[in-house]
Amino acid sequence: MPTLPRRAAGIGITAVLAAVAAIVAVFILTGSSKAGEVNLTTAKLVPADAGFYLALNTDLSSSQWVAAFDLAERLGADDPENALKDEAFGMDWESEIAPFLGGNAAFFVRAVDVEAFNMEGGVIVKCKDAVKCSKVFVKQSGFEFEKETHEGVEYATSDGGLLMAVIDGHLVVTTDETSMHAVIDVHKGKAKSLASVDDFQKLRDELTKNFLAFVYLNTADLTGDFLLNDPVIRTALDQSGTADLVFKPMAMVMGAKAEGFEYAAASASDGGTAGPMLQPHTSKFAAVVPQNASVFISTNNLAKTWKDALANSRADIDKAIREEGTYRDLDEALRDAGRQVGLKSVEEIIELLEGESAIAGWFPNGSEESATGLMLFEVKDEAKARSVLDRVFTASAVGRPAKQTVNGVELTVIRDEDGEQLAYGITNGYAAVGALEAVTATIDRKENPLTDLGIYQRATAGQTLGTFAFFNLVELTRLTEGGVPPVLDEATKALEGLMLNAVEANGVARISGLMTVAK
Q1: Is residue 350 within 8 Å of 326, Cβ to Cβ?
Q2: Is residue 49 part of a domain?
Q3: Which of 123, 111, 102 is closest to 19 using CA atoms?
Q4: 3-state secondary structure of 445
Q5: For 360-412, what is each residue's pLDDT tens digit?
Q6: Residues 246 and 278 in one domain
Q7: What span, in angstroms and rounded, lies between the C-alpha atoms of 506 and 423?
Q8: Pick from 85, 100, 93: which is nearest to 20 by CA?
Q9: Does residue 328 belong to any structural domain of this protein?
Q10: Residues 182 and 297 in one domain
């Protein structure tokens, strides 16, 4: 039998390895909704120096897969179980697929050669029947295998460049002998496993342990001809202040639950310069804006984040501005921008944003043309805030600003060059600035707030919020003139809300997302 090039074998890891991942992702069996964490037995065999680890939940009777199947039906799939089962890639379910579904399957990478488009690593699958799995792999690969041993453990090498072993109920397939020996050394207790690495354990504990897929990435451990190992790239990351974020380990989970599909990520970095914006907070403005707000974005401590960013990189920023040629430094650029809106410097506005700041937008008539919105921010010094806003409004007005009272709050109202009416008002320790219609609706409080909206409640339930964005998909997917195209409506009518969140707590920065699906 002719020998396949090693590169081709490494890229594909044969049809079986691709099939295992694909089948796990599509064959969802109904059954009892068995909750509980995924036992990552594969991580106990993966070498500690692995820079990339992707694990899949292969317990198809688990609550995750049952929920995913239910969500697929709610999004318009017609009997997806049988439809997908009919597309079995020419393989028999009972004899060639079911043996692989033993709880979890993982793909890991120890080294990357970008130039040769090759890698060192492999796949480890916890099998229901490891012997059957090995036979299926041999059959599907089409390779010829010869037996070898390392540390008393038997494995097989192939004429296609792949190696295979059955270890402790797991099928192990690697692209290189070094990785196979490393897995065996871990199994024999002669080397540490990924599961024993402190950062892996910390991030694993930080995220939910019940998921469809789990990813761990530590770019610092990926050796070989790897892009981030390039000295120029490393220097650039160091100078930009982002090296800590890039090279610190991170983990991600993707899963499903009754409300919808969810995603979460955590980093061993504390967020760096962006740390102040990621501090946990309860949004007071979500309880102020009307519940028809289609977009709501909230953050924290912008003034401190700005101050910290300048402290870390002011010289680099000034140098870049001078090289551009328009201004001598950042201060001159900020002063020029400020003069255009009646201020000494744009920093006068930034300095006001000491607490929560938020942006909200909505579409009163259900059309893009009716879009309205406003910005809200906490006010610690009302006199200072009024001074800044009065000067901005006076500089932007066509004619003189007017006064208007809404719900006992005095508004300053102007008409800008485009004929739009803008307003600001300060009440209850916050400022509302934006379209007159939006400011009036927010301060008047005649409508229920966003926090009363069921879609918002389901999208935020159980989450610790830092900087976050909420999107009402029910409203946003129907803004196109003429409505949603019929081909998309079956799925989009089930979409409810999308929540994206970034938060730092206990020295770990987390990013998460949840898309809720209507029942």
Answers
A1: no
A2: yes
A3: 123
A4: coil
A5: 999 888 777 888 999 999 999 999 999 999 999 999 999 899 999 999 999 99
A6: no
A7: 40
A8: 100
A9: no
A10: no
